[in-house]
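Troubleshooting entry. Yesterday's outputs looked truncated, so today I'm pasting the complete records for two proteins to confirm everything comes through intact. If either block looks cut off, that's the bug. Protein one:
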Amino acid sequence: MKKNIFCFSAILFIFLFLCLSPLSASETEGNLQLKNLIMDLEKKISDADTRMIAHPSFLDELRTLVEKYKSQLREVFFKDNFRDSNYTQKPKWIVKSGNFFVTKAKKLSNSVTVRNQEPEKSVDPQKAPSLEEEAIGLLMDNIFGSKKNDKSIETKPAQPLKPVQPAFIFTKTIFPPDFELNMEFISTSLTGEMEIVLLGTQNLTPRYRLNINLKNSKDKPIEILRENNSRQFVIGAATKFSRINDGNIHVLKWIRFQDGAMHVLIDDVTILTTYEVYYRNNFSGFGIKNKGGAYEWVSFKIFKAQKPEIN
């Protein structure tokens, strides 16, 4: 009878455990609740084992289940989903440039227009006039007050789009060198770029940048850059090219492990893998730089890194 009572209680306990964990495992309060729940279950299993009121194989199954969910506990260093309709407190974001605001749909928004650079002019050496031709041209200009058409000057096509002025917003938060940063975002811009900038030291010096090109193609891939004394070095580029400017919510994960291995995933598909051990200290903040395009950010979360299932 006691054995049956224990089995029923344990199954009910596990049912509540499974119901609660998907809803709260990623939240700080939920993590504490989940830890307490696991501790209680471990005590129950230990007590049942000591009193021999449950079959050993059943207890082993419970222990396996406990270990499975213990591995899913995440230490949360930062989170914001803008549900409070602001970005100025709890947590506090600081705008360095640009105009950021929270939409009615509770998303952080910013837009930076881009424009073509002025066409450049160049001189074709083969068509350039000789000294005698230049002298005759000057004489004709003085006599008739007109200038000959200079065929040596050609106009080059317009240069690639450039932002009028990048927008930058950042927040101060301490997190370790082995981290997982999750960002949910939306964009419908045909072209554009944004960066996730990891900041280090008390001076909030940029250490790493994840440059996200909306086209995300072989010619313009998503890249990780290391920054040192204002110099940037590309340490990894995407080898897969998911579409991210279709107006849907996309989840970007940037993961770095203790050994320096880095992975970037979009919608749980690994697009970039590289290795970097240059910076080993805690980070002191991170920021978002809009270098062109319109974006809405749904949420940001930073966890302690744990090995993902790389696709």
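Protein two, checking that the full record survives here as well:
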Amino acid sequence: MSDAGPVVLGPNQPQRFYRGGARIAAFRGLARPELAPAAHVPEDWVGSATAIFGTAEDGMTRLPDGRLLRDAIDNDPEGYLGAGHVRQHGTSPALLVKLLDAGERLPVHCHPSDGFARRHLASAWGKTEAWIVVDAAPGSEVYVGFTETVSPGKLAGWVADQDPAMLAALNRMAVAPGDAILIPAGLPHAIGEGVFLVELQEPTDLSVLLEWESFPIDGRTDGHLGLGYDLALDCVDRSPWDAGQLAALRGVAGHSPVASVFPGAADPYFAAQRIRPSGGVVALDPGFAILVVLSGTGVLRSDAGSLDLSGGMTILMPYAAGQSEITGDCELIRCLPPGGV
């Protein structure tokens, strides 16, 4: 049987090719003087049963007792995930949650769709993702979707030549703390420097790198998922995205104690709820979830006992924890797999 209670998770920050990590340490309240601006640990994989592409276990979460979360779930899938989830998705949580600190602008990239991943990568999932902005300096922005139709030849030329025209061809979207944006699979995008966010995504590490100039990675060998760019670029959405389409990717901020974060188009992939008890009680049905405590203090009570909450905590909620409730003056994001609301 799984441990029935919530599990507090510490940092899980694999090395990546772009800079970041200091904001994650600050968010968690950890003294990490070694995280100079040049640090390359910009992602914290929270409650991860997913490995970095091309590795066996890198990126996977280890529980406090030393077990890989993946193995613990395999040993008791219904205890962690619930019988309904197991019938639908097997022993995968069907979700990967990250904290992401863009210590520099990320390169332009995109992720394959479920269909492309099944056809060419032997994966049941592609990588639709979504962002919840926790912190961003005034003037921060992200880059999402092309402004005009891009022909296959032009895109291939931009990638081969590492032409800065590719970045200039993307829509710029201003972002601020509290914003939520859905990024469908295939949509080319980049996150601007200084943006710190919670990311929900399908449980893969599948990325097609469209830009790598000035980054310590060679996209010609490491950027196309082993497919070669002639095939990999077929997963890119080359259509134009206008202001109305971009607006539809944004979630609508709600002020109720429990508010959905993302637009309805995210529902087949994952869900997130912003929880603000504001001195009241928020009751939660049983279900696998990752909780990210953004700020404040509170108490999480479940059938397995109680846990004091404070800003910067990340918590795995197994299905077996049962009915739970949150009280206090705090704000959380409850991250859920598809069908979890």
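Both blocks look complete. Sanity check on protein two: The chain has two domains: 7-248, 266-336.
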